[in-house]
Design brief:
The protein has 3 domains: about 140 residues, Response regulator (Rossmann fold); about 100 residues, 2-Layer Sandwich (Beta-Lactamase); about 200 residues, Heat Shock Protein 90. Strands 2-1-3-4-5 form a 5-stranded parallel β-sheet, with helices on both faces. It has a 5-stranded antiparallel β-sheet with strand order 7-6-10-9-8. A 5-stranded mixed β-sheet has the order 12-14-15-17-16, with helices on one face. The protein is about 45% helix and about 20% strand. A hairpin with a 5-residue loop joins strand 9 and strand 10. Helix 2 packs parallel to helix 3 and helix 10 packs parallel to helix 11. The radius of gyration is 47 Å and the shape is rod-shaped. The protein is an alpha/beta fold.
Length: about 475
């Protein structure tokens, strides 16, 4: 005889209550006969003696219930209904109910009791064996599908959770790095930018999705950027390019753009992930380095020419070799001293008066041609080097062509701090009339570009007819930035 539950002893195929049929048929041998019949068909059964124990078994996710109609009217009917109402959304326990006599002419109470089971099939007695087996097997099949649906739902929830956690981790990593991170669909549609992108550009979130990000490219870089990007989209090749991107300040800054495709197991591109790295300082520094190297080469040639001029002019004017030797030693010594200061200022902090003395020393002749005025401010080594070269260039040009090329000419060099800005001016007076050059030479470019770059400010040469003028304006931080 099939034992009663509990304990949960399952007769028939397997030992899992979720795949078995609970049988509640308290009168006569109905329960035993039904269990034997189902056992022959390989269906597991559990015989219970009352609604309370049936309700407990349903809480354990029994496969299906075979119950006689009279057993539904037991004292624990309310507990059974509560258990059915408390079933999770995916669970709908199937009932096979054996009716008393025919299923026609039933009372309203009997109909309501059947409706309360939610998922019930009514069979009339006496019962044909095949009809019972088919009804129970159909109920178990439906119940199995419920479990499969629950399993798939749990797998989907797990994948959704894993995807959410993975996406959260990606966003946390992407937002923690200093680079601007972005991604696109396989067609190149931009659908993600990290926080650094919006901090750099200053645009509203989502405003650069799709192809709208191209509006931030420098107009001169647009064609090259799109050509390279379309090539990568068409071939799957790595994308890498330097271009200018609009900063939140309104200026364009150099960035290095890179992107790599992500492929599925079939080799098909499913995403593009890219980055933009701010390389503006490095790019500017490289341009300045090249400019300064060229200027150093220019200065060495000028120094050699100056040495040659000192030697040749001294020898022509000296009355004897001893006087010539002394004069040459004195003048070259003064030039060497200026170069020593210049070299020293390239790696240690200097003061602006020392820088000016070093730059103007080779051009002073004791006639007070330079009028210098300003506070003795500290400047960084890079700024000192650039300022020394610029002032030496200005002084050399003044000696050759400007105010210092004639008697009575003067140079007024003044600087001050005003409104948190550094102002420096070079004004020549008493010299020959000035006319703008047909083209700016290397020295002019070095003065305006390199000097302005090192001071993070602006520099301008003004070819006023009354005398050359030069103005440098920079923030206070520009005096020592980069140290």
């Amino acid at each position: 005889m099939t034992p009663e539950w509990p304990p949960a002893a399952v007769t028939g195929a397997g030992s899992d209550p979720t795949g078995a049929v609970a049988i509640l048929a308290p009168r006569g041998r109905d329960a035993v006969v039904a269990a034997q019949l189902l056992h022959k068909e390989g269906i597991g059964t559990i015989i219970v003696s009352g609604l309370d124990r049936l309700a407990a078994l349903i809480e354990q996710r029994v496969g299906a219930v075979l119950i006689t109609e009279e057993a539904l009217a037991g004292p624990d009917e309310e507990r059974l209904l509560r258990v059915l109402q408390d079933q999770p959304a995916w669970s709908d326990v199937p009932f096979v109910v054996l009716a008393n006599g025919t299923v026609s002419n039933r009372s309203d109470r009997a109909i309501r009791r059947m409706d309360s089971l939610r998922n019930a099939v009514l069979l009339s007695r006496p019962l044909h064996a095949e009809e019972l087996v088919r009804s129970v097997r159909s109920a178990l099949t439906a119940r199995g599908r419920q479990h499969d649906a629950r399993k798939r739902m749990e797998e989907l929830r797990l994948r959704e959770k894993q995807l959410f956690e993975s996406e959260a981790q990606f966003h946390a990593i992407a937002d923690s790095v200093d680079q601007m991170i972005w991604s696109t669909t396989p067609t190149g549609f931009h659908d993600y930018f990290n926080r650094r992108w919006y901090e750099f550009t200053g645009v509203p979130y989502g405003s650069t999705d799709g192809e709208a990000w191209a509006e931030l490219f420098h107009p001169d870089d647009q064609d090259n950027i799109w050509r390279r990007w379309r090539h990568s989209l068409g071939t799957g090749d790595h994308y890498e390019i330097e271009y200018r991107l609009k900063h939140r300040s309104g200026d364009y800054r150099w960035v290095l753009g890179r992107a790599q495709p992500v492929r599925n197991v079939d080799g098909r591109i499913i995403r593009w992930y890219g980055s933009c790295t701010d390389i503006h300082r490095m790019k500017t520094a490289e341009e300045q380095r090249q400019l300064m190297l060229a200027e150093m080469n220019h200065r060495v040639k000028n120094s050699l020419a100056m040495v040659h001029a000192i030697v040749s002019q001294t020898l022509r004017q000296a009355e004897n070799l001893e006087d010539a030797r002394a004069a040459i030693q004195s003048r070259i010594g003064m030039l060497s001293q200026a170069h020593d200061r210049l070299v020293q200022s390239s790696w240690t902090e200097a003061h602006i008066l020392d820088v000016i003395d070093a730059a103007l020393a080779p051009h002073r002749n004791g006639e007070a041609r330079f009028i210098v005025k300003g506070p003795n401010l500290p400047v960084g080594s890079k700024q000192a080097l650039a300022l020394t070269m610029a002032l030496h260039e200005l002084a050399t040009n003044a000696v050759k062509y400007g105010a210092l090329s004639v008697a009575g000419g003067h140079v007024h060099l003044k600087w001050e701090m005003a409104d948190a800005q550094f102002h420096l001016s070079w004004i020549e007076t008493g010299g020959p009339p000035v006319a703008p050059p047909a083209r700016k030479g290397f020295g002019s470019r070095m003065i305006e570009q390199a000097l302005a770059g090192y001071f993070d400010g602006s520099a301008e040469l003004d070819y006023d007819v009354g005398g050359l003028r030069f103005n440098l304006i920079a923030p206070v931080t520009g005096l020592t930035t980069g140290e």
